[in-house]
Amino acid sequence: PDNAATLIFLADRLIAKGDIRGAQALAERALATADTMAIQAEAHFQVARSLHASKKFDQAFDAYTKCLSLNDKHTLGMYGLGQMQLQRTDMSSAEATFQRVLERNPKCVEVLRALGYLHARLPNTKAKALEYYEREMHVLADEAAEHARQTGKSGDHAMAWMDDANLFLEAGLLYEATNARKARKAYLAASIILQRQPGNGDHIPELWNNLGALSQLTGESTESVFSELNAAAEKCARVLGARPKQRTNEVRRLENTQRTIRYNVARFYETCGLWQKAENLYQTIVAEIPAYTDARLRLAHIAYFYRANSREALAQISQAIDVDAKRPAPWLMRGNIELQRKNVQEARRAFEHVLKDIAKHDVYALCSLGNFYLAAGKSESVRASSEANASSPVAKKSRDLAQQNYKRALEFFGKCLQLDARCVAAAHGVAIAMGERGFANDARRLFQEVRDAATSGLGPLTLCTQSSDFVFKVPQPPIASVQHSVDDMRVSSDVILWAGVNTAHACVEIGNYRQAILVYESCIKRLRETTLALESQTGHFVVQAFDAHGEGAGVSEAEQAERSKVARDLQLYLARALYVQAKSSKDVKVMRMALKEMRELCEAANVKLPSD
After folding, report:
1. Nearest in space to 220 (alpha carbons), one of 273, 263, 270, 268
2. CA–CA distance from 410 to each of 2, 249, 403, 426, 431 (Å)?
3. Sequence-separated (6 or more) residues with CB below 8 Å from residue 582
4. Cβ of 73: how many Cβ atoms within 10 Å?
5. What percentage of the chain exceeds 70 in pLDDT?
6. Which among 255, 237, 239 is positioned nearest to 247, based on CA atoms?
């Protein structure tokens, strides 16, 4: 009864059986009879474990500390101390403690999980957290492969070996901010694990909602998106139905989740071109929760773009502002709509209001104001060039104003790039300003960099164009974006397309017509491909699965008209470049190509040309 080693062994067994009080009594008795530092350290560790399990964290912290003071190489004692430091939110000490454990046990999944958890809750260390979570996944996969080898099984048994959905839920949450595909993959792994457990994960319908939303972002099939969102709605309704009718926090959480699922279904309907169905769902949401600003902004988007009702759109935005005047999104949408309506001063005031009174570092507002001053500079440049006397006071004043506006535009774009070095919209704006000021070669290189960055997904696709003149395109952020991730497929928001167009324009300015022709042709190809993709996304499945009342699904008339206009403009740009190249090189074949493009344009416009 007084053998300390035996008492420690028994205490360990009692903890495993859940008899915490008995384990603590035996550990304290072992501590009183221990006659060596190693035994005393182990006794303190068992006392600390018991106190830890009893949620007496301060006492457990002291016991773990005493354990390590007697044996500073006690690995489990270090791990327990790290947990207590986490409990005390002493993150730096906890990290140092866990790192000591990891040095001794580099494949310890518990320590990797703890370090991932720790860094996930620290500012600016999310990438480090993902690194630890991925290391844990690799360790578990290696263990699964080793187990399969020993048992003679073939194939991939990694997912069958893993049984902790929280690992993938935590990783998925972090991936959402950087990589939608990896986030979806992590959530899918979590769903597989949960479906093997009792309840099939019904208690977290948010998981299936996230899967549906991420499937939209990553371009999965419409069947997959609808299946996942439908599963989320069913699970949420099932859990709500099983809960008591009292307004508990759990019930409120589920009701909020149900509204979020409904909102994502509406966004899905928008993607499929079912505007009326989407509008009905948004109206249901705002009827239940008038303060649901995102739904109001989507109603404004539908009203303006698909109903051509600017009054209704602005009314919805005003209601969103009344709910939360300090939120930037409604003001930004108002500014963009006013810009589309040519109310440029109203647009400028909306953007300036965001920067002065709401968020002085809002990249979207900074970029919008940069675009505003770019357009103003271009307007003054055109006015100066239209003067018959280039040295007249009026022409000189317009040139000076143009330079001032370009300088202001560069200041705003510069601030954007200071806040986000990978902001494609700001870099695009800088390139336009350089091109308009005569630095066409430098602008061409920057446009190409912007195009490459957008193609590789390094920046947000937030540019559009309005002018069809043969000049650099002044970009505007799309009105559609009120969420961080938007499935906006309007041609005006295709940064890869417009960066390519501007690259070709710059090539023309420096006389490189051969390169301009190649780039214009690639832009025409991209426009055709994105148009086909948009038509297929709003096609057969959606009409069959959802359109029971005969609602038309597809691309809006305004979008169809815009795409047709852009196609004509691109064909005209190509014809001009071919003509100049043929004329300068005296190439008959290229001239025939130019005439062919012009003939097609004339036929499309019902203009008759001589047959020869």
Report:
1. 268
2. 81, 50, 11, 9, 10
3. 588, 590, 591, 593, 594
4. 10
5. 85
6. 255
Which residue, chain included where needed, has tokens 């308009």? Answer: 436
Q: Give CA separation, 110 vs 57, 105, 120, 321, 389, in Å.
A: 19, 10, 15, 47, 79
Q: Which two tokens stand for residue 121?
A: 């809750």
Q: Give yes or no for residue 217 having a pLDDT over 50.
A: yes
pLDDT tens digits for range 456-503: 554 332 322 333 233 444 334 333 333 333 334 566 667 778 778 888
Distance of CA 492 to the CA centre of its chain: 19
Which distant-in-sequence residues (6+ apart) come within 8 Å of 254 by Cβ? 205, 236, 239, 240, 243
**Residue whose pair of structure tokens reads 């930004």 in the numeric block:** 332
pTM for this predicted structure = 0.68
Contact by Cβ (8 Å): 443, 451:
no
| CA–CA–CA angle 218, 224, 230 (5° rounding) | 115
Burial of 587 per CB tally in 10 Å (0-12, 13-18, 19+): middle
Given phi > 0 = left and psi -120 to 50 = alpha, else beta, which region is 488?
Answer: beta
Q: Give the list of residues 6+ apart from residue 432 with CB closer than 8 angstroms, or none.
A: 374, 443, 472, 473, 474, 475, 502
Determine contact, residues 70/37, Cβ cutoff 8 Å: yes
460 in Cβ contact with 424 (< 8 Å): yes
| 31 CB burial (10 A radius; 0-12, 13-18, 19+) | buried
Comparing CA positions, the residue from 565, 566, 567, 536 lying closest to residue 553 is 536
Place of tokens 């003067």: 387
Tokens representing residue 187 in the block: 């959530």
Banded model confidence at residue 543, pLDDT cuts 50, 70, 90? very low
Q: How many C-beta atoms surround the C-beta of residue 445 within 10 A?
A: 14
Determine contact, residues 216/201, Cβ cutoff 8 Å.
no
List, in order, residues 6 or more apart from 452 with CB less than 8 Å away. Answer: none
Q: Is the pLDDT of residue 110 over 60?
A: yes
State how far the alpha carbon of 607 is from the alpha carbons of 348, 595, 601, 602, in Å.
Answer: 41, 14, 8, 5
Question: What secondary structure letter does DSSP report for 355?
Answer: I
CA 185, 188, 191: angle at the middle one, nearest 5? 155
CA dihedral of 573, 578, 580, 581, whole degrees rounded to 10: 140
User: What single string gives the DSSP state of each residue in 508-574?
Assistant: HHTT-HHHHHHHHHHHHHHHHHHHHHHHHHTSHHHHHHH-TT----S--HHHHHHHHHHHHHHHHHH
